Each structure stands twice: as C-alpha cells, then as structure tokens.
Amino acid sequence: MRFLPKLFFAIIVLTFFSWQNVATAQPLSVEQVKQNKKVTLGQYLRYRTLESQVDIQTVIERFELIDWQSFDKPLPVLPHTDQAYWFYFDIKNNASLQQALYLDYQFPLVEHITIYQQDSINGVVEILDVNLDQAIEERMFPSADFIAPLTLSANSHTRVLVRVENDGLVQVPMYLVDQLWLTNDKSTNSFWLGAGLALLVVLSLFSILVFILNKDVSFLYYAIFSCFFFVYYSAATGYPIEFLWPDFPAISQNLSMFALGIALASVCLFASEFLHLREKVRWLYKIALTLCVLFVLASFMGLFVSHYQQIMLQVVMFALCSVFLLTSGVYVATRKYRDAGRFVVCFSLITLSCALFAANRFGLVPRNLFTEYSLLVSQFFAFIVIFEALSSRIKKERSQRLKAQLEALHHYEQFYDIYENAVEGHFTTTVDGRLLRANKAFCDLIGYMNFEELAHSIENILELYVSPDEREKLVNRAKEFGRVYGFEAQWRRTNGKKIWVSINLRFEPKTPDGAVLIGSLIDISQKKRSDKQLQFLAAHDSLTGLLNRREFERILNEALIECSQSKVKHTLLYMDLDQFKVVNDTCGHKAGDILLRQLTDELKDVLNKQGIIARLGGDEFGVLVKNKVGDEAFVIAFQLKQAVQDFRFVWEGRVFTVGVSIGLVELNEENHFIDEVMSIADTACYAAKDKGRNRIHAYTESDEDVKNRHNEMQQVSKINDALANDRFALQAQLIYNMQHPAESLHYELLIRMYDEEDKLVPPGLFLPAAERYGLMPSIDKWVINHYFSWLQHNPLHMQRVAKCAINLSGPSLAEESMQNYILDCFEHYKIPYNKICFEITESMAIQQLDATLSFIKCFRDLGCSFALDDFGSGFSSYGYLKNLPVDYLKIDGSFVKDMLVDPIDRAMVKSIYEVAKAIGMETVAEFVESEDILADLRSIGINYGQGYGIAKPMGLDDFVKKFGRKSRFEMGS
C-alpha cells in the first residue's frame, strides 16, 4: 500500500508533461516536417461533420461555405456520429524541389477512410481509400495504420482532405512524417509492441505451466485472464492485427468485446481464489460468481450490438470489475490477510492504467507512450507481484506437504509395525488367490514361521478353505459391494486341524499389483463353540436337557404350518406331574431336581424317537407326536403315563411315587394359532386333573369340561382388560336384622364386571376364572379402594351404615402385601374400622388357617368384624370354629332355600344357629327368597337374613336412595 502515493505522483507528472505537448505550432511547412521527422497534425487540422452522401466534389465546391472547426488538442477524440467526419490541413513546400511525405493515421479500427490531395497543378486526387474489412496485404502500405503518400510539388501549396466513417468514437492520431521516420519508427514500435505482447503470452503460458505443476487453480484463472487480456488489448488498440489476424481486421471490434468479458470473469474468479473469499467472506464470493455470469453473458450479448454500444458496455463492465476487485482487496486487507495488500497494489495499478487508456480513447487525456503502453507495463508488474505472492504460498504449501509426507512416512512406519505385530491376521491376495503379502499373525494362525515359508508351501489361498465354494462367495461379494465384513468360513491349518475364521475383505481394482483383495481375519473357533453351546442352551432346558418351551413352540408352529399346507395330522400331549409338590415340600428342591432328571430319562426311553419332548416349565412337559393321531397317539400317551406311574424315586431312605395328568389334542388343518392349541392342551390337562389325576383326557370338539375351562382361560384376558380400563362396578345387597329391625344399615358389597361393549358379565362366568388363575387379589384391591373412595365422598351414608360386608378370597389372605394395602386404604380414606366386616369363605379359611388367623387378629384389634361365609358347605367341621375368632356365621344358602320342605336342611340351620349362639357368634342366613322362610328363620332365632325375598342387589347410589333412611322391614313391618 505504501507504493500508491508514488504511483499517483508519477502518473500526474507524466500526464502534466503530456498536456505540455499541446502547444500552438507555427504554420505547417515541409521544412518543419523534415526537421522534426514527425509532426502531429491535431493543431493544424480543421474538421466538420457532413452527411455520408456528400462527396469530395461537393466539399471542394462549397469549401468556403462550410463552417470548419479547429482542435485545441494535438491528438483529439471526436464523439460517435452517424455522419462522416471531414478533415483538412494545408502544407507549403517552399523548396525548389519536389518533396515526398507520408500521412500516417494511427487509428487502425476506423471503418472507412478516404484521403484526397489538392493542389494547383494536379487538382483533386484520391490517394487512399481503405475500409476495415480490407486485408492488410491489400492496402497500399501493409500496416495496421492507414498510411498515404503525399507528393508535394516545388514551391507549391497543397491541401489534404480526409474523410472518416466509424461506428464509434473517432480518434484523430494523425501525423505527417518523412520516409526515414516511417521506416525506423515503425520498426521500433513494432519491436516494443511485439515484445510487450509476447511478454503477455509468456506470462499466460507460464501461469498455465505453474497450474499444471502445482494444481493451484489461481494460476489457471490468471492465465485465462492474461490470455484474454492479450486478445483484448490487441483488438482494442488494433496495432497487432497486422501480425495476428491480418486477413480479418474487422473482427477486432467483436473480439475486443468478447475477450474483455472473459478476462473480467476470470479475474473475478482469480480474486476469489487468491483472497480465499469462499472461506473468508462468503458474500463477496457470491458477488464474484454473479459478476462472472454477468460478464460472460455480456461478452456474448455484445456481439449483437453496435460498436459504440460495445464501448459503453465495456466501460460499465470495467467499472463494476474494478469496484469489486478493490473493495474485495481492501476488505480482506482489513482482516489482516497478508497477501491482500499486494493484491490491492497490483489491481490499483492495473485499474489506473486501464482508466488512463479509456480516458485517452474518450479524449480526456492526451495520447502518449504512457497511455498506450501502461496497460502492458502494469500487467507485467502485477504478474511479478502476484506471482511472488503465489510462489510464496506454493513454497509454504510445499513445506507443509513435505512435512505431511514426513509425518505420513512416520505413520507408515508405525502402521507397518502395527501391521506386522497385529493380533489379527492381515493378508493380500490376487483375485485368483495368489498370496502377495501376509503378516506374522496370519502365518502363526495357519501354522508357519514366516511368510516365506508360507508362500513356499501354499501357492493359492484356496488351499486353506475347507469348502472352496466359500471363497468364491466371498470374492464375488467383495467385487459387488467393495467391502465384506465378518464373513465366516472354515479353514484348515498346516497340521490338518480345522478352525473357524472371521474375514474382513476389501476389493481394490487398481493397484501396482493389479486387482487385489486386502483382508484381515481372526480365529473364532472358540466363539463358534460358545455359540453352539449358547444355541443349545437357548433351545434346551438347563436342568433336564430337554427342549425348552420357546424351542418347542417354534417346532409346534412349524408343525401347524405343515398341517395347514400338507393336510397332515399330528398330536400334542400336555403333561403335568401329580404329587410332585410333595417331594419338593418334604425333601427340598434339590431332590425335586434330581427326580425330574431321572424321570426325564425314563420318558425319553419310552418315546424312543416317536415324539419330540420338551419341558415347558416346572413340572409341565409337552410332547409332539408327528403323523400319529387317535389310538396310535393314545398308546404313546398311555405308555408315558404308565412310565411315570411305575417310576419310584428314592431319597434318604424314603420312596416317592408321582402321577401325571395328560391332555391330548389332535393337530390338523383347522388349527392355525399356536396359542390356541397350547391353551386347549393345557385345559385338557387340567380336565384330567379335575377328574381324578393320573389319567389321559383327549380333547374333542364336544368336550364340555375343556370348553368350560377354556372359557375360563379366555376370561382371564377380559378380567385384566377390565381392571386396566376400570370396567367393574359395585352393588350392595341388604342384610336384614330380623330380630331388631330398627338397627342401622347392614349390607354386603358385590362385584360386577362389564365387557368391551358395556354388557354385564355374569359373576359365575368371571369369578371362577379369577379364582383359578390368581386374579382375585387384584379384584379385592379394586373393591376396597373404590368402595372406600365412594364412602369418603358420601359422609352422610357413612354415618348411617352400621356394617358393610366385603368378601376376601383365600389368595388375598395369603398375599403378604394385602394386609398393608388395606391398612393404607383405611388411613388414606379415613374410614372407621368398625364400619367394615370382612367375609371369609369357610373352605379357604381352613386351608390357610395360619394366614387367616394372622389377618383376623390384625384387623379385629383395630375394630373390624369378620364373617365366615358359606358355612356348612365345605368341611363342615364345628371344631374349626373354636380357632376362628369371627363375629358372624353365614349359613350356606343350600340349607336355607329348601328348609320349609326338607326337615334335614331346617335341622342343619337350627344346629348351626345353636352352635354359633353357644360360641357367641351371630348368624346370617343366605338365599332368603320368601316371607315364609323369613318368618321361619326369625322363629329359630337367626339374627340376619339376606336374599331376593328381602332385597335384590343394586348399585350403591340406588341403594342409598332406597335404604338411606328406613327399610321396609323396620318398625316391625
């Protein structure tokens, strides 16, 4: 940047001296020309624009009437006009001899020029008539300039007239010279002009060479710029056309337009690369690309407009490009980019020289060597500065590249060391299998000391494959996809031992060795053995070695598909051991495990490949008998049952026997779903248990027992869905105090379930399924939580109620979490303990006596009361009543409903009442369905009655509305 003031000063000085050349000369004479060798005619010329059709004769005749004008500059420039410009000057020959001079019009791009000479001796003579289309060789003087000879008679006065037509600005660099100057000066000018242009060509070629060697695109863009700038300068000045395209001078105008557009586009791209605009200033980069497109389009569009319009378009393009280049350079320079200052200096110099060139062509600056050749000089200077910057960059990049190569070499040495000492085996082969390279791990894996020994012993890697087809698959896959990962194959070591390897392979089609396969491998023999063991464990029961449930279901599913497609039939046996729990409970699980292993061996011996046996879980087994149904399958089932029945298990001197219940189901094309088949088989097995255990139950479509059990199983999912979606409802049934009708409300809670369509499901359909499949604790929790919540939101009813009886199932009593759950509900909803009476079924209470007593003690101490439900229908042992501290005995309805017609039932009711009274318990009679039964019960002394004869079950809200104040039985009614 520090060079700019000096540059501006030099330009101002040169311009000043150029302007000083414009001095008013003396009247032109031959002696003056001979003395100076060259005279600029600008100050001697007179000019006028006339219509194009005006000829020389008209001009001569009306010469005095024409308003001729003079120039105030030695090298004037005239504006564009559609008319013709006429010039004239006078010259005197005072010598006594004839003189020869030459008129040199140094504006090669004029379209048409005609020169006339008038004197008193010869009159008017046309001495030159040339247009721009005329080839150089066809002109009087083969030169880009328009040169006409003037022959001046002795002691004569001669007038020279020049007619010029041009589609653009008209420069008037017109000189009068003698022959010696014409010869020497033209040669000198041609030499220096040729040298400057040759320098441009050399710079362009040098830039292209540097680009080819260094792959730096900046040099390519600069080379394109230099080449097209060379063409533009040649076409715009017109001087070199006699050397470059002498036969077609007229193309110079269009050529300058096209070349300037391409040159400006390429210099914008060069600036973008040189200043790194794409990375540093994205918005300037976008402007650069936009200008490139505009300049290229303008270079083509300019071919279809007039020359004057081309000049104006070139000025606009040059201005836009200059603003962009200088703006970009200055902006990036402010970002401390070290080469940006050089860029600004160079393109400021080129911009100023171009501005001087344009200013001269428009007549703003006088024409001289500086204006004509500053473009070439500035271009050369810019190239030197920019090349130095680019070469510094290349040196730096080379240094970095060398450093990177050294690092790469170091890394290569490291990688080679890793390659040689890697745990994995690495190798390279040709496509046909010839080994090229292999590391130590590969040689060790195969059983050789080194690669030389391996290559000497094995010519082709195909020899290592146990199955040669595997390598063909591997190679084809590598060719198709380029890479293969984890391809497993079996190889053979040098000692003949087979191993499994996992291969990663990459196909490289072009290497110094040709197409090769580069691979690595590891020994996975141990993994294969482990996988095989895991596959066995995944498909087999770890205790017995039989198939497990998952594998058995997979095989069973395939059998069902076979039945559907091939119409074959099979048989499924579902087996559940009887009395196995006794062994576990009395001798421990270790004894139970040994029993299962011994019994499994017996079952396998009996089957003897007649069927597929699996342990489904616990003491349950499944057997698939293929292609046998009916009696044949039943015989196999009987043999299995008999084998279990005959089996004796001895443990610590004790002998145990077990039985087995077997469900038999035929598989045919009507069976489609494995879950349905397993469910039916399981149900058939339970039907065998229900009928006495240790027997075979064959399922048929008319089997009511299995259907009922199957329906129960289907209810399980519906119950779970109802629990999840809150499709249960509570009802209440009045428990009437027959001896003291005025007492507060006493009722029992009943549970109801609705299906997906909000239809009521009978309790007898879902409650047995819930009891059988362990869902009663969840239902009991739902009842307690929802009733306590409802009671909390109805405080008036809570005051009115005396007792609410809530049924608890046996599994709920045995569940450890139930007791805490109920206690939390009492605490959360603030329900008085004395309002709640828990009903316990007699049979369940006796079966789980310890759990029942613990539960009763906990809640009785808090104030709850208890009722023993269905008393008399179960074990009917009065002895248990001494150990069950309950408050109420609910007499089973089977005795109550027929007591008026069956004296034994009445006697049982009375007996239960008397025993309960003796112990201190109150009695509740169920199934009170008439006034007569109610009266008879009251006469016996039964405390409470419950049944349809008293009140039917109803929703809690309806119950409160009906019995919220007084029942119809109160007040003695």
TrEMBL record:
Keyword Coiled coil tagged: no
Record-annotated PAS domain positions: 411-474
UniProt cofactor(s): Mg(2+)
Residues of the EAL domain: 712-967
Species, as recorded: Catenovulum agarivorans DS-2
Top-level taxon in the UniProt lineage: Bacteria
Stored Gene3D superfamilies: 2.60.40.2380, 3.30.70.270, EAL domain (3.20.20.450), PAS domain (3.30.450.20)
Protein name from the UniProt record: Uncharacterized protein
Classification via SMART domains: EAL, GGDEF
Entry GO MF terms: catalytic activity
Entry annotated with the keyword Transmembrane: yes
Domain GGDEF, chain residue ranges per copy: 568-701
Signal peptide (residue range): 1-25
Transmembrane segments: 191-212, 219-239, 251-271, 283-305, 311-333, 340-358, 370-391
Listed PANTHER family: DIGUANYLATE CYCLASE DGCE-RELATED, DIGUANYLATE CYCLASE DGCP
Keywords tagged on the record: Membrane, Signal, Transmembrane, Transmembrane helix
